């Protein structure tokens, strides 16, 4: 069997930045173990698979796999999938609709940007900062939890950039992922995201984390539209907007690779 394959840098202002995602268009689903094996072989943070949807309210059904597990939500691979559909398959709809494990998702085209429409996950404060201090290597001012993400809030961007986490301790925390965040210097806020439980030591750019980050920073800064940067080694730019119980997360994409998988 031959499967087309694309590797896209998502939330990238240029090639070799942002977060690489694999995208596999399918006519019908492969066995779960085959998709998991493909994702492991690709060894990217996520590989997305999509098929034409039979749901009248969606254009495509979408699934995401890390090298070790299937995820219920992934931002950058969804952005990459919409980019591939628009740029490689000629899907010129202004909004591409997906059905997923997290419900209906949509990606709109706004000039050179693709904009995710995801459910907001407003975080709540949790009273256990010490375990996060031990795991991340420095004490956060406080810790919030939204969805699968813990937000460890620091005093400034330098504190986030200087973190040297103990990934075994991060993996032992109750959260699916841990995000360190602070007010930014050139952006409204910055972040770093650690997901060792899913085989991702540090995710370069994490769209889904912004489902919690955007409501938090919108409330703290008193503004609905913001710019954000994930300050990983690769780095990535995100344009953020809180829209009631939804978040809009925009970014650019760059195609790195097109090929065929021989399965």
TrEMBL record:
Domain of life the protein comes from: Bacteria
Natural source organism: Ferruginivarius sediminum
Entry-linked NCBIfam families: PhzF_family
Family from the record: Belongs to the PhzF family.
The protein's name: PhzF family phenazine biosynthesis protein
One annotated Gene Ontology cellular component of this protein: cytoplasm
Recorded GO MF terms: isomerase activity
Coiled-coil parts of chain: none
Catalytic residue positions: 46
Organism taxonomic ancestry: Bacteria, Pseudomonadati, Pseudomonadota, Alphaproteobacteria, Rhodospirillales
Keywords (A to Z) from UniProt: Isomerase
